[in-house]
Amino acid sequence: MDAVSAAAEMTATRRPPNLVERMLQIRIEEWPVVCWSWLYIFAILSSYYVMRPIRDQMGISGGLENLPWLFTATLGGMILLNIPFGWLVKRLPRTRFIPITYRFFAINILAFAAALHFASPDEVTWIGRIFFVWLSIFNLFIVSIFWQTIVDVFTTEQGKRLFGIIAAGATIGAIAGSAVTALLARSVPSWVLLVGAAALLEVAVFGVRRLSRLSDRLNHVPFEQSGEEAIGGSVLSGLVRTFASPYLVNIALFLLLFAITSTFLYFEQVSFTAKAFSSRGAQTAFFAMVDLMVNALTLGLQVFLTGRVIRLLGIGGALAALPVLSIVGFALVAFAPTLMVVVGFQVARRAGNFGIARPSREILFTVLPREDRYKAKSVIDTVFYRLGDQFGAWGFGLVSALGFARGALPEIATAISIAWLVNAVWLGRCQRRLARIAEPNTSVSILREK
Asked: What's the pTM?
């Protein structure tokens, strides 16, 4: 029995859990770690969602026909950035390489703020295109690093109980960031919002350092597994180890299929929005309001349902919920292609991803070695996700180029979602088998042989 489980059992013998502990499924000794996790993810998601509506508006102003090229540039940036990140993970402990990464992005944000402040109207379009690519890289990296830390801190059992609650901190941060931008976008210059987003990343640095030190003491982890010790391995081992493991390949496939269908839906939303709203401020405010609706629905799921749904359906059932929703949603879009239907489906799908699918997918990594949790997970969360964007972005244009009607796109997405459903069920079964192997033995090196 690990130290956390033992402490929980001792706590249970002293007194029954109170109402809040029963509702949120948080044991008393886990509260400090969960709270620091909340601050950490709140800060980085607030930062991102302050900037996200600005990015979406810039994507429209740069021309819808240029979006596939922007997604291609994003994929290239993801591949390149994983090389220095792999070097940092190899050489430095968690408590050093994470702050370096976040401060690098904060400097980038301040550079964009300065560029927007001093740019001429003609220059803003090109700055917007570069910003679109950069933020599409930024959002996956900062969130992936957060979850890399979380799956390194918590066990599979804790993940089933706590990942939904921890993700609620992300949703609250996203709501805060979206609300700020929705309220201020029409009256405050974009560069001012960017300065605030950069400051929030420094809050994240403070939070992750406290989380790492506190979690090591709580879990009584050995030094070689703590945040104070470098992980080692090679710079490219994330990519190599991903392709060497059928389990990791299928996690990558899950994310790839999700990204393809997400991009299809994103292009539909952007297309309808460009027709419905003419001014930049109105477009930015509309995107911010969509984000606000998504995050309000997500928060309710994460606080009250995520942990219970995962325990009731298992990892496979929870992962399968989003493909099932996508099959139904794309069928509705094919039947009634309107802005309200597309936005309604987008809100439900993104809430289902953040509230159910994302915490479930992160649990898949808790049965893997630390090197896979950081390096392979980084490659999967960034490169494979953006590779899915590529298939989705160019597939969107290919449908029109080949002379198919726009209504064919939801039908293609429905077929992809069916394959995605099969993949989700397989992953759930494999994770359950690997968890049974890992439970009696703290060494998980044998997992790669299965």
From this structure: 0.76
